[in-house]
Amino acid sequence: MYHDDEQLDTQVKEIEKLLDTIRDEDYWQNLRENWRRPGWTTPAERLLVAGHLNALKGSLEHIRQHQEILLAGCRAVGEKG
Questions:
Q1: Distance (Å, rounded) from C-alpha 45 to C-alpha 52?
Q2: What CA–CA distances, in Å, run from 33 to 13, 40, 47, 65, 73?
Q3: Cα separation of 19 and 32, whole Å?
Q4: Rounded CA gap, 16 and 39, in Å?
């Protein structure tokens, strides 16, 4: 059976690039500066942003779980017993 390791490597590289954009410190600093501007914000806006931050954190925690399962599955392939 043909194994396309290059395709898997490409997928990992694409994920790494995406993670780099998520880790962009300038983005997060800019985000924090925005809610410190005068006139920002109403309780409803704060609730909306807090909800999005909670959802984003949950998504990232879920991704981390997928990452652990992926590695464990890769390690388990070919193990005896």
A1: 11
A2: 31, 10, 17, 31, 41
A3: 20
A4: 37
What's the rounded Cα separation, in Å, for the pair 67 and 12? 11
Contact 7, 21 (CB under 8 A): no
Predicted pLDDT at 81: 63
Q: pLDDT tens digit string along 65-80?
A: 999 999 999 999 988 7
Distance CA 35, CA 19 (A): 24
Contact indicator for 34, 27 with CB cutoff of 8 Å:
no
Q: Is the pLDDT of residue 27 over 70?
A: yes
**DSSP secondary-structure letter at 78?**
T
The token pair that represents 42 in the structure block = 């109403």
- Sign for the CA dihedral angle at 61, 45, 29, 36 comes to negative
